[in-house]
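User: Just a sanity check before I run the rest of the batch. Below are the structure tokens for the first item. I only need the designed sequence back.
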């Protein structure tokens, strides 16, 4: 991969951002190698898939890589992650990190840094990452879907509150959901609740559904829903100087996110906001420095994002 500063579609991509991309490509190749050796399928998703189709690589203003897997293969990946991902690779999920909650997993490089000002107190790995989302069966019956959505969202919201506030003392002045989560998970272990959360998705067999979606990440009745038949096989297409897997129906996989005119470029911000990246120094070394001088984050962000 050419790491020199270049311009694409009138947008300047700094060399420093390309170095971040290179780390993410390495993480992707590690993930794909593990999946290949264990007979697991994953596909590019969201902006990564769009970038591959429209630009044969990253969208110029993008800063991450997204993959997606069907639940059965994702569960297998989680079960083998401890053996397959060794330093500097860190497979991150609620199963492996005490202070981390998300419906999807991330694969990180522990020898690097990816952080924003809200993450100073986090205890989990804050290296550069790629996302691994989960495709679950989408319930067509609106009544059953409402019940399923409600039950999963209640669990999700209470677990998020607990993970973010469990170290704080109980205070009557806190919000109802925060206090309820502390009381609930003082009785029921939060990890047990997370297993129940995931089991609610496992109960809907994606192989028997007409459509699938990343509902453990965001349960939408309108967006991110695609046909199960689009994920029968992998089609390998160029991504930068590599070949990465795409769904067998790329159009269906992109329309659900971006609409019919997805080939028209739109300069939109990333979903997770702008990050402080460093490809040479680990987050464990940088965190104390950034806590003392948070203004360094803004300075670094201006170097990485040129618009």
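Assistant: Here's the designed sequence for the first item:
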């Amino acid at each position: 991969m050419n790491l020199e500063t270049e311009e694409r579609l009138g947008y300047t991509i700094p060399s420093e951002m390309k170095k971040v991309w290179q780390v993410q490509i390495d993480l992707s190749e590690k993930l794909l190698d593990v999946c290949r050796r264990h007979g697991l399928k994953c596909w590019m998703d969201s902006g990564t898939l769009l970038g591959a189709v429209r630009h044969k690589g990253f969208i110029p203003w993008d800063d991450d890589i997204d993959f997606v897997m069907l639940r059965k293969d994702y569960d297998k990946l989680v079960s083998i992650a401890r053996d397959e991902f060794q330093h500097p690779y860190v497979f991150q999920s609620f199963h492996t990190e005490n202070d981390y909650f998300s419906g999807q997993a991330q694969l990180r490089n522990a020898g690097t840094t990816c952080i924003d000002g809200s993450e100073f107190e986090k205890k989990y790995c804050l290296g550069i990452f790629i996302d691994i989302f989960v495709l679950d069966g989408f319930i067509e019956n609106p009544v059953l879907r409402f019940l399923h959505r409600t039950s999963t969202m209640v669990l999700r919201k209470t677990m998020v509150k607990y993970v973010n506030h469990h170290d704080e003392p109980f205070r009557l002045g806190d919000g109802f959901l925060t206090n309820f989560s502390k009381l609930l998970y003082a009785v029921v272990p939060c990890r047990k609740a997370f297993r129940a959360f995931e089991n609610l998705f496992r109960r809907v067999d994606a192989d028997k559904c007409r459509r699938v979606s990343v509902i453990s990440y965001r349960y939408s009745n309108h967006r991110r829903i695609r046909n199960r038949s689009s994920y029968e096989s992998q089609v390998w297409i160029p991504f930068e100087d590599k070949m990465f897997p795409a769904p067998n129906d790329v159009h269906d996989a992109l329309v659900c996110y971006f609409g019919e005119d997805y080939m028209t470029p739109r300069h939109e911000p990333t979903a997770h906001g702008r990050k402080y990246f460093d490809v040479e120094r680990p987050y464990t070394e940088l965190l104390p420095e950034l806590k003392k001088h948070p203004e360094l984050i803004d300075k670094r962000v201006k170097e990485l994002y040129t618009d």
